[in-house]
Known about the structure:
Helix content is 58%, strand content 4%. It is mostly helical. Among the domains are: 220-280, no CATH class; 591-677, no CATH class. A hairpin with a 5-residue loop joins β4 and β5. α9 packs antiparallel against α10 (188-199), α9 (140-173) crosses α11 and α21 packs parallel to α23. The chain is globular, with a radius of gyration of 29 Å.
Amino acid sequence: MRVINAMDADWIDKGLxxxxxxxxxxxxxxxxxxxxxxxxxxxxxxxxxxELAINSALGMIGKNDPMSAQWGELKYVIRALKPGLKxxxxxxxxxxxxxxxxxxxxxxxxxxxWDAHLGGALNQTKTGVIAGTKGxxxxxxMRALSAVDDxxxxxxxxxxxxxxxxxxxLVDAQNPQSKNYxxxxxxxxxxxxxxxxxxxxGSVALKLGVNKAARWIFAEALPGQKDxxxxxxxxxxxxxxxxxxxxxxxxxxxxxEQTHMAAKFFQALLRMSFFPFQRTPxxxxxxxxxxxxxxxxxxxxxxxxxxxxxxxxxxxTGKREWGINQKNRQAEIIERMGQQLQGAAAxxxxxxxxxxxxxxxxxxxxxxxxxxxxxxxxxxxxxxxxRRAGVEAYxxxxxxxxxxxxxxxxxxxxxxxxxxISATIxxxxxxxxxxxxxxxxxxIAANTLGSLVDQSKEKTFMSGLGDLVGMVENLxxxxxxxxxxxxxxxxxxxxxxALLVPNIIRQPIREADSNYRERxxxxxxEILYTVVPAGQKxxxxxxxxxEETKRGNSAGRMFDPLDIGTKNDANPxxxxxxxxxxxxxxxKAPNEQDRKPWFPSPITSAEFKHPKTGQNVKMNAEQLAExxxxxxKRLTAILKREVVNFxxxxxxxxxxxxxxxxxxRSEVKKILxxxxxx
Length: 678
């Protein structure tokens, strides 16, 4: 098949394959893909336990659902793990070698759809279009990802198939029309039924098991597409409506209808620039939404599913008939309820521990967990101050009483927990801060959904679309916070050009640099830095004149997607301003313009007045770097003479910092004006 695809491919197909290989080749990316099974382990253990409890409770008050989790299935699940693990290793190795998913053939008895591959069917992504050893090397990241997916689908699919075999046996035993009617768990007929289901490739139990395993690792079919059971994925909830859009996007992005090379090139360019991945992002956000207590799931999706499940239309009479589980959706409803209960339990644990951010004493907590902190031009100063203080987004941090960090890590790339936990923390933090600030909290429930939406555009797999949204937001923001449009456009284009160099080269070079880097106006500098980030751009300087450095060491950063380490060099002024923000006292300021938290804004551009001509001259990159450093040092010197209450700041303390910042930048501008006017 790869030989035929290579013969049939054009330069656009080869460019797409190279681009995907480049994107997925990073060392951190490989580490993230390696922990994709974490959610599957959770769903198979804790998730199953919650579903067992709900189904058992239903059995006590009425009738439980035989197709939902059962206590009797556990021994069969455990029994399936050993052969499942052996088969998973085998399929993983075979998938790597064949460069094609083997679980479909080995477990599901599905043959390759040659008509789709060779006939140019719609939405059929070509693989193996670059021939020979070169192609095998370029495809190594995709091969590794596919091999890990097959390992997870086989292992968890076999274990879950054992559970489904048990449940199907229960259903068959309750069917008076079945020859197995009346059989009971443990007898010979029951055991034989399960063995047939487990040992027959493509059996109903194996298809259901692999289909569920695919859902756990975010490889589930999008609504409107066929899943592993051969059924078209239906729209079941609010998230699936979004998924319908994702499926349409997928059809557009992978359509092979275009025969005109210009149209095909434009389609490929849009795809790689904005939405190179469609299925995984949607499935992650959908799973996260189901684990996050939110009004849509609690008051719309689940109640509508229950209502739909207790009624069915009689085709003969045309009337609706009512009863329990009319459409066999009870197992799905139990699963959804279990996910919401897990989210609610996580919220209560966070509230009991007091670990989530949003309290006045955040910097004094022994355990602090931060939320998402979505980026916007107006919040950039605050977000950068929080990073300098070691309390950036998605951080789990064990801290001393003085606010310094003992140990910590970022949970931002462990999905779907990152999205679900951070959305929960964001909601709690908004409520706590809003209450202290005396704000109207009528829209508090909407904060959860808003957090999910904000996060979706910031995830690495949605970074292209997020960059586009960022440019639009930059245009809409006030001049004080706006970055030059041409600079944003250059950064966006540079990011797309960067795909020419594999991530496995760029990522280690970037992480070997211990400094954060400033943005520049030079397109060539942005291109060079994005392609080979070897420190071409000036080091990022904080508002106090100090270079900003990363956590950990270069060797660890290359492979560590969790950002493990400590950062204890925070400026006390940053911590004081964060305490002021957390206090909510700013909302009661007498002047309306002061009724918001304040942080020193980053210097993105600046002008000075030419002393001879009186004209405003825009600083170039070198002048701007000098201005940042000198203004920061001058601010530090001024603040050393000021008396500031760091522990319990007031508006007066914030005004002192604000005035000192304006004074320092004004004085340095005058110095540089005379220097560069000569």
